[in-house]
User: Fold these one by one.
Assistant:
Number 1:
Amino acid sequence: MPAESEFGGRVALVTGAAGAAIGSTTCRALASFGAGIVVLDNHERRTNETAEALREAFDVPVMAAAADIGDRERMAETMDEVYDEMGSVDILVNSAAINVQGSIFDFDPEDWDNVIAVDLTACWWLIWRTIGAMRDRQWGRIVNVSSVAAYLGGNGREGPYAAAKAGLNEVTRGAAIEGGPHNIRVNAVAPGLVRSKWVDAQAEYYESFRAETPLRRHAEPEDVANTIAFLCSDESAHITGQVINISGGWYLTP
């Protein structure tokens, strides 16, 4: 794990940051090692509440930024605001995503467009928006939150999500190749099921998934957040372009 205060003076922007699972937990993990945090989420109330909780818990700069990452015009304004208030972004965590499930026989093409716009295109745009300043400073860390769905064809019910995450894995590798000479490391994490209120509410349905997982449990948000923090730290200094599977081995099961 990172050394104490390793990220002191750094600024981390986390998307989907006000969610109760991976996003907000990642904010806490990075703040605990000294990073200033930009809480970026499309839910304004939760964004402000998450930012306030971070200010109370950690002695780091925190900015609440309520915006939909799929809204290019609003995101351009938001990033200008981030740079004005917090300075350049050193650490980018692309965690926000949407998922519309259904069969290809019944799918609305507009749903496909929306999923790709948020889960893939917006992530690429944020990398593009931040990586230039990282190059100028010769330091940057980017972690994309992918999914085991990228390897499984969406299990036949979440094709757009799976396609977006598979594309995000390739964006990760491409950015790692270009960023490497400038001390910019780019990696991804690919969780399976992560315990959340949503998963807990459907515990009976997901019991079979848990039972088929070699480690016999769903991931906790901390399992993912701690891996993200590791990938941003000097403990992973020679790791880039990788997709780290965090599923307890679930993707191995037939």
Number 2:
Amino acid sequence: MSTVEQGRIARRFAALRAEGRAGLVTFITAGDPDHDTCAALLKGLPAAGADLIELGMPFSDPMADGPAIQASDLRALKAGARVSRTLELVRAFRAAEADTPVILMGYYNPIYAYGVERFLADAGAAGVDGLIVVDLPPEEDAELCLPALKAGISFVRLATPTTDDARLPAVLRNTSGFVYYVAIAGITGTASADAVAVAGAVERLKRHTDLPVAVGFGIKTPDQAAGIARVADAAVVGSAIVSRIAANLDADGTARPGLVDDVLGFVRELSAGVRGARG
């Protein structure tokens, strides 16, 4: 069995299956609104109910993301975020939390600039479990996907409403950890996910893969997260959490004193919805 197949992601989804429930995947942007506040949020997410954590790698041109995450990227970059500091956040998180999977999500440019071999070595040493790199299609697997798998880091691929049965085998060929189903056609944080449509999509995906299916984009409330948790293996919430961070900033972008508690309180509400979804 490979390192990927027996790693934290696989163990977490096995535990969720044993509990008979779906998981909650939370997304925050590394360094948003500043390094220390982000570190406090990251540290508090598991106790607030996050089963897996996606940590966004800030980038100046996040073409798949809507206004909320775009703004979070700009805040983080303004505060000095970069790949090395993102990995610092993961290392600090791992010092206190050994079990919760961390998946870095972003775009290839910062990784390429950092150096693929160096990045994978440093990410593995920091405790990163998986990567989601939205602008690398299967045709470019040799760039990062295959080296990541060799390094024991899962490569999570996106499937969308427009990914038909002819395309799915290529999308799934080297995917590991889980499949991320994009519930809406468009960018993050815009339309709301439709649980009925998602149920059909998840059923179709599961005819092609034994991997867990996590569903994201367009999940904004505990009720919506619960609706997805009834039909998928995990619900992913990103823009709604990032927007909650933004709502707790002063006019100059400085974190207000209650930011961490308020955001983690929202995550607890999302977790309650997910955990209660199947009765």
